[in-house]
Description:
Blueprint: H1 3-32, H2 36-96, H3 100-120, E1 123-126, E2 138-144, E3 155-160, E4 162-165, E5 168-171, E6 173-178
Amino acid sequence: xxxxxxxxxxxxxxxxxxxxxxxxxxxxxxxxxxxxxxxxxxxxxxxxxxxxxxxxxxxxxxxxxxxxxxxxxxxxxxxxxxxxxxxxxxxxxxxxxxxxxxxxxxxxxxxxxxxxxxxxxxxxxxxxxxxxxxxxxxxxxxxxxxxxxxxxxxxxxxxxxxxxxxxxxxxxxxxxxxx
Length: 179
């Protein structure tokens, strides 16, 4: 073979390589530009995955919230059990005992223990008697004529005490208001 034939073969090989590269590039370009349907399917798939993730997150959050609430109340109940035991002992002793003063003292001690336990959990007595009536913190049961002029519009009597838990109303006081 002569030099011309060799150059011709090299040229032919180079042309074949170029043609293969061009065909590969065309295939890549065809794949690089997805059709509208492919784009729609891809976006729809993303949407469904995102929706499922969010739904799972929402369900998990609800479950975690319920667990937190349950464990918080278990702490309070655990602290109340010794007081329940004290009441059981007091009732048992009440059946046998003739000492009225001793029974009164025992119930006062149990009440004090209950009160201090609830205060340690953040429970506070909401002030009511003598305060100006406020519908945000009081619930008026009835109005009566004010015994004195300075008690008009104020709480005259408390039917049921109100309580706050860490500064927020837990139960509103049921009160009688002077008119």
